[in-house]
Structures are given as structure tokens and as C-alpha cells.
Amino acid sequence: MRNRIVWLIPMFLSLALAVWAADVTGKWTAQVPGRNGNMRDVTFDLKSSGDSLTGTMSARNGDVPISDGKISGDSISFTVTLEFGGNTVKQMFAGKVAGSEIHFKREGGQGQPIEFTAKKQ
Question: Which CATH class is domain 2-120?
Fold first, then answer.
């Protein structure tokens, strides 16, 4: 009996986290600082399913798929791989969902990490 209870507790906690995961499905727009501080409009088209996240991000040459998308409670993360002049740049995004906003931190590519806020359309 005790073994059964010990096994059930993690299962219920996992289910509770999956139910509590933020639903970020939809389009989100942001002004993202780029080179030389120039702001660029970026759209994230996200789809959440349990603790999985898929979708696209707008880039200079069209939409780019996100990969490794995860949701845990109000935290999300994903990776985007971009191509610039034959060079591959991988960017990692981590965000906290707060109502109709996602507060992002982007790392990778050139320069320091960048913070910005996306708003749900």
C-alpha cells in the first residue's frame, strides 16, 4: 500500500503541473531591440498543448519554426535557428507569462542577452 502511495504522489503532481501550464496559444507581438538598438516588430505564433510548445517566429526572411518548446507553469522556453549569409545562428528564448504578456529573455547569437515583452493580439 505504501509503495502505491509513493508512486501516485509524483503522478498527481505531474498532472497538476500540466493542467496549470499557461495557455499561450495565439499570436504575440513585440518590439525587439536589434543591432545598434534599432527596434524590430516580431510576431510569435504559438500553440501550446500540455507542456509542449510549437509555432513560428517572424524573421527578416519569413517565418521560422521554433524548436524544443516547453511550458512549465507560467514559464516557457524555445529555440529558433536563423540563417544569415550562410551562417547559422541559434537563439534561445525563455519567458514568464503574466496575463496577456510574456516577459522574454533572448540569448545566443551576437551580443548580450536581450529582454523584451510580447503582448497577445
Answer: mainly beta
